[in-house]
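Workshop exercise sheet. Pairs work together: one partner reads the sequence aloud, the other fills in the structure field after running the prediction. Swap roles for the next sheet.
Pair: D.N. / O.F.
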Amino acid sequence: MLGLFALRPAVLDRLELSLLDARFRLRGAVEPQAKVVVLAIDESSIDRLGRWPWSRRVIADLLDRLAAADVAAVGLDLVFSEPGDPPGARTLRDARARLEQQPRPDPEALAVLDRALLRFDNDRQLAASIRAANVVVLGLFFRTESAAAAGGVREPEFGVGSSSQFSVARIPPEGTAPILTCSGIEPNLEIFESAARRSGFINALRDRDGVTRRAPLVALCGGTAHLSLPLALAELVLGKRAMVLGDRNGIREIRLGKSVLATDEGGRILVNFRGPVGSFPYYSVADVLEGRIGESELAGSVVLVGPTEPAIGDLVATPFGTVFPGVEVHANVVDNLLSGEVLRRHDGLLWIELAELLFGGLLLIVMVPRLRSVSLGVLFASALLALQLGVTAWLFVHDGVWLNAAYPALTFFAVYVAVSVTHGVAVEARGRVIRRQFGTYVPGEVVDAMVEDPEAFQLGTERRDLSILFSDIRDFTSLAEELGPDDVSRLLNAYLTPMTRIVFDTQGTLDKYIGDAIVAFWGAPGRVEDHPRQACVAALAMRDQLELFRRTRKDLPGADRLRVGIGIHSGEVAVGTMGSELRFQYTAAGDAMNLCSRLEGLTRLYGVEILATGQLVERLPEEFLTRELDAVRVKGRHESVSIFEVLSRAGDAHANSESRTWLDAYAQGLAHYRMGEWSAAEAALREVSASRGGLDAPSEFLLGRIASLREAPPPEWDGVWVFEEK
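Structure field:
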């Protein structure tokens, strides 16, 4: 990369230029700092004033209006290299010449012709307006070698006055530095040149990709240094003359008064474009001539007059677009020179860029092999790249400094790829060993994690808050006795496949199959922030999937008889690799797992499909409809737990807008039951059963329990039912 940095191949330079354009667009439009306006020779003006080119009288009238508005300076992005008199003026001039050649010319006839010529002499009127305004800078066009190669260029000519020359110039010999050098000049007529305050060339520069980003402030023509139109305008506004100083290697500095302009060795500045087309105030020339633009809007401003109509104007590509009027490029340069906010790229930045290459490359070489995973390596390299790009963007936006972004970025990428490939060969070899040893009995996602970070997968665990699901087919033992082994296998495979897919679709981990039972959890090995919700979504989806399964799989014996009970619970468990030194698996264990298993067993007693603990339900969003069924103490636990039936989720087929009445009735019955008010509890629970057609199993279950409690009242009733069996 250091060699490429020194050679600067065109493809990488183009990439850097594209990144520079991206920084312009990232920064967006900013407010111009100098009062610069553009008077556009646009479509509207041509429609109202006639086809281009206009009579010089029109330009003269425009300059008169600008002078009356007390503008600071006027720059004409135009060249008046040919006489502009209409055919009638030439006829009158020829007639006067013939009359004057007669032996005795008539004085009165000569006077009449002189008065007529004065009316037709538009060039003289324009020159008079230029001189009267005393703030006009004319444009010059320098023919370059590239223009000459295109054909149709006249022999070199350098006849031009001193109005476009530097006051002090120490310049390198032609051909020894990358300075714009002309093969000829398209000058203004002498009558205009002598009337203007200054002149400046209007040539634009394009980079290798055809985009204009730089503006030359100096050009060499016939061994003389000439200044650009924007620099001439800045001289006029500031009342200071520019000086150019250089040696055989190029231009060292261009001074404007005490200010040193940030140019390269070719005397070019990086244009700090203020934004897309229209970042400066635009006025139509016709509007100014017709008095539609007040003098106060133009007073004290630097006015640039030039074409914006595509048919007659010069349109260039810039970082903000491919159709950008050349006259607005000049406006940007004038603003940069007057405000001092020119983009900077000086020789000292090369050392900073070189340090970036070396430091960033060495940092990647040292750090990437030390990181435990490819993702961490990518993250580190990406962070380093983001830091580098962020710094370059920040320097550009806030300080106007162009720091190379392409070469450091490519260095980081190349070094990272080289180090990663070397490191990856070793990691892949180690991964093959792990997959060969564990791939047949450890879940695939766990194997991937082991390959990614082998040290983290020892025979150990961690405490983590998870949501757990136990699902079991009811009375499957009896069903299996009726079916043959092949039918049982087909039925289980067809049933477990969609249920397992639901676990995976909700970011869950399949712990194990226990015959026809499914054990799953959410929150490990990958963390799931809303794991109670995901577990509840999975339970409801399993219920709905089973209904679909019973309807659609008539081809499977016993499918229509499948019923399941599902228990879900949230709590802290030990999760990780557990087992012996001979064999282990990724699983979870603890009181929360045992409680969830007991919960699944209680579904058959309460006659519901899904039971959840209060620890899970209290963490659910409001989209789920649940009802509290009871408070129980299961065998093996001293603490009681509230259990809830999960009814539905907002928007699914089981949601019932009329369920609130019987839910409230059940809640009242449960409250009376817990207080030992058996009669009131029975009345409320019978109301629930009646409202549900006598099919509310939890209400019937509690009614049966109340009957037994009436017969044998407990000595101390706390509303918690103790189950002595699993």
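Discussion prompt: The longest helix spans residues 406-438. What would you look at next?
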